[in-house]
Every structure is written in structure tokens, then in C-alpha cells.
Specification:
The protein is 31% helix and 14% strand. It has 402 residues and is of the alpha+beta class. It has 2 domains: 266 residues, 3-Layer(aba) Sandwich (Beta-lactamase); 125 residues, Beta-lactamase, CATH 3.40.710.
């Protein structure tokens, strides 16, 4: 297959994003049938020094960490060390007597939260923000932790047990809501494995896949590779700044709270290995494995389960974000169920992946054996139109390459 036309088109799409000042610096890598067909860097990393984006830059994943946490949970499930029907309270006693918010006052939860509820984001847990009374209650708690040095915060298990003291937004399983479920799963992994969340991730997922630059902090010797972070000011201009978000700050310090929902940092190279493993039904192909050997993390049946939608029709109605049009959700990832609802064509049922607060995005399409990973670092950086533009360009290019 000749991918030259695809490469030229993608190059122009990515350059246009920089030229139109939609981003300062980005990376895009595309695979087709386990072959790398595109990898380029665009723009600059630092507007003060002029340093260019480099392929080994280390990025804040934020919510693109969630699929990694999901894989960690399923490694324990495969080993029979937990069940998806287990209650969270079996591992975290802070969730033993859950209350549910109502305008008239808190009422007891009708049932306990399960591991499956966390994986599908139907637990009723929230993130801190001013949008509703439950989320607003969390702001002070997160603020207390953010006032401390990362190594002085509550530990992963302590933090998540405290989350259990806050009321749920709704009865467990009642509907979908994007909240702190993945963080609680990280604490569950820690309790079940008997190791820190970081240690278990490294043992079960990161080290086997050769993800040597993926961690909860950037060590001193790698700081010069740490990608710059941007935020738009009141005039819409990019300003070099790293705001504290979900307790995450001072990323050069090993944190006491290892956030399964947002805490990991990684390179495009590392995350590509993870995505290739999932696209290949749980096995990283030999050509991308350490020492030229294939590495199996999960069984094919497990990956099939992970990439099956976990929401009912009524629960899916709460997935109202623009980036979720046409998608359902399950196991901390989006899963395409309605191709006719998306704005790029062709689109194929079963496409899955996720994104992050700074704009990072991963797409895996089993039907066409295609994946891409896009990296950028800007607060509130989600741009569905850009992701769809990339997909449209890739599919047109693959068709022409045949």
C-alpha cells in the first residue's frame, strides 16, 4: 500500500491547526495493520524558549490514563482476584454506608456501588466543580489536598475512602455521570494487589509493554523532556501556565495520591504501545515489543468484554458531550454504536478509545486495524472537530492507498 497521499494530507491538516492558532504544539502518530504510517511533530513546545516539539516529549495524560486503569482492573479480574459484581465496600470501608443527595436531604443508597458501576461511570460519584450541589461539596476537600505538597496529600486509599463520605449524585446504576470512579478503581487495585497502585501498574502493564516513560511524576533526569502546558487567557491567547487540576500539580514530585483517573504522564511512543496492545486483542505484536517479542497483557475474550458498551439506552442518554455523539461508554472508554450520528465518514461500529483534559486523544478501530494517538497540552483542550478532521483524513487516505 502507498501511504504517501495520506501522509501529505495529514501533514497539511496538522500544520493548519498550528497555522490557525488552534494549538501551539502537537504530535500525531497513525498505525495501520500494525505498521506505523505517520508520525510527525508540529509547532513549538515552549513559546518563551522556542524549543520545538520532540517525539520523546512527556505529556500529562489526564483522563487518557483511565483506559490504563481499566486494563489494570481486568488483569486482576482475569486472575480471579476480584469480580465485577464485588462491592467497592469490600475493599474500601469508606463506601460502606453510602448516601444519595436529594434536594430534601441525603437518603440511603438502595444498593452498594460495584466494580462494574465504577468501570461504566454509573456509580453516582462526582468530580469537584460548581455545577451541582454534590460536586460543589467536593471542592473544599480537593482544595484541602491541593494546598499540600503532592507527597503530603492523602494516600490513594485514604483519599478514596474519604470520597465515600460524600453523597452520591444519584442512586448507583441509575444513570451515567463522569466522575471520580477511575480514581476509586486505582485504590481498589492497590488493596487487591497488596501493592501501591503505581507498583502494580508497572508490574502488570507498563514494564511488560516497555512503557519506560509512563509514571505518576517526571523524574529529574527527564524534566527537560516535559511538555509545556498552555491555557487561553480572556482574550483567547495562549499563555504558558500549568493550573492545578484534580489535585494534580508539581508533577516532578512523586505523589502520595496516585490518581487512576488523571494522574499518569506518558510519551506518544509509550501510549502507542498500550493502544497497539488493545487493538491487537490484548497482545502487543512482536515488532513493537521489547526485544522483538510479543507481549500478552489480556486475553482476547477480555478485551472483547472491555470494548463492549456497558450502558443501557437510558444511561447512554446522559452522554451528551459533542465528542460522545454516536458513542456509548464502558470500561472507562467510549465505544461507537451509532455511526450515522458522527460527523466523519465512513465510521465503523466498535471504534473505541478516550481523551484527556489537555486535548490528548486515542482512537482504535478494530474493523480497519487502525489507530492514532494525538498529543497536545492545553487546558480544556478537547476539540471534537479536530479529532473528526483527523479521522476523515485517515479514512480517505486509507481508501486511496488500497
Amino acid at each position: 500500500m502507498n501511504y504517501d497521499l495520506l501522509k501529505n494530507r495529514l501533514h497539511e491538516v496538522m500544520q493548519a491547526e498550528i497555522r490557525q492558532k488552534e494549538a501551539i504544539g502537537t504530535q500525531l502518530r497513525v498505525f495501520h495493520k500494525n505498521r506505523e504510517v505517520f508520525w510527525e511533530c508540529f509547532g513549538i513546545d515552549n513559546i518563551n524558549t522556542g524549543r520545538e516539539v520532540r517525539k520523546d516529549d512527556i505529556y500529562r495524560l489526564f483522563s487518557m490514563a483511565k483506559p490504563i486503569t481499566g486494563v489494570a482492573v481486568y488483569t486482576l479480574w482475569e486472575q480471579g482476584r476480584l469480580s465485577l459484581d464485588d462491592t467497592v465496600a469490600q475493599y474500601l470501608p469508606g463506601f460502606s454506608s453510602m448516601q444519595v443527595y436529594t434536594p430534601e436531604g441525603a437518603v440511603p443508597a438502595k444498593r452498594e456501588i460495584t466494580i462494574a458501576d465504577l468501570l461504566h461511570m454509573v456509580s453516582g460519584l462526582e468530580y469537584p466543580h460548581p455545577g451541582n450541589p454534590v460536586a460543589a461539596m467536593l471542592c473544599d476537600f480537593y482544595g484541602e489536598q491541593e494546598a499540600k505538597s503532592p507527597d503530603q496529600m492523602l494516600s490513594t486509599v485514604e483519599f478514596c475512602n474519604r470520597l465515600g463520605s460524600f453523597p452520591l449524585l444519584f442512586q448507583p446504576g441509575e444513570r451515567w455521570n463522569y466522575g471520580a470512579s477511575a480514581d476509586v478503581l486505582g485504590a481498589v487495585v492497590e488493596v487487591v494487589s497488596g501493592k501501591s497502585f503505581r507498583a502494580y501498574l508497572k508490574e502488570a502493564v507498563l514494564d511488560p509493554l516497555g512503557m519506560q516513560d509512563t509514571d505518576f511524576y517526571v523524574p529529574k533526569e527527564k524534566l527537560e523532556r516535559f511538555a509545556s502546558m498552555y491555557i487561553r487567557d480572556e482574550h483567547g491567547m495562549f499563555r504558558l501556565e500549568e493550573p492545578t487540576f484534580l489535585t494534580l500539580k508539581q508533577r516532578h514530585i512523586p505523589p502520595a495520591f496516585e490518581s487512576g483517573g488523571a494522574g499518569l504522564l506518558s510519551t506518544l511512543s509509550d501510549y502507542s504501545r498500550f493502544a497497539l496492545m488493545l487493538l491487537n486483542k490484548g497482545t502487543l505484536p512482536a515488532e513493537w515489543g521489547k526485544d522483538g517479542k510479543a507481549v500478552t497483557i489480556l486475553r482476547p475474550q477480555t478485551v472483547a468484554k472491555m470494548t463492549t458498551p456497558g450502558l443501557s439506552k437510558s444511561q447512554r442518554k446522559q452522554c451528551g458531550w459533542e465528542s460522545m455523539r454516536g458513542f456509548s461508554y464502558g470500561n472507562l472508554m467510549r465505544i461507537l454504536v451509532a455511526p450515522d450520528e458522527v460527523s466523519y465518514h465512513p465510521a465503523f461500529p466498535g471504534e473505541f478509545g478516550w481523551d484527556g483534559w489537555t486535548g490528548n486523544y486515542v482512537c482504535m478501530d478494530p474493523v480497519n486495524e487502525m489507530l492514532f494517538v494525538y498529543m497536545v497540552q492545553q487546558a480544556n483542550g478537547c476539540r471534537p472537530q479536530m479529532y473528526d478532521r483527523i479521522k476523515q483524513t485517515i479514512y480517505a487516505g486509507l481508501s486511496d492507498a488500497c
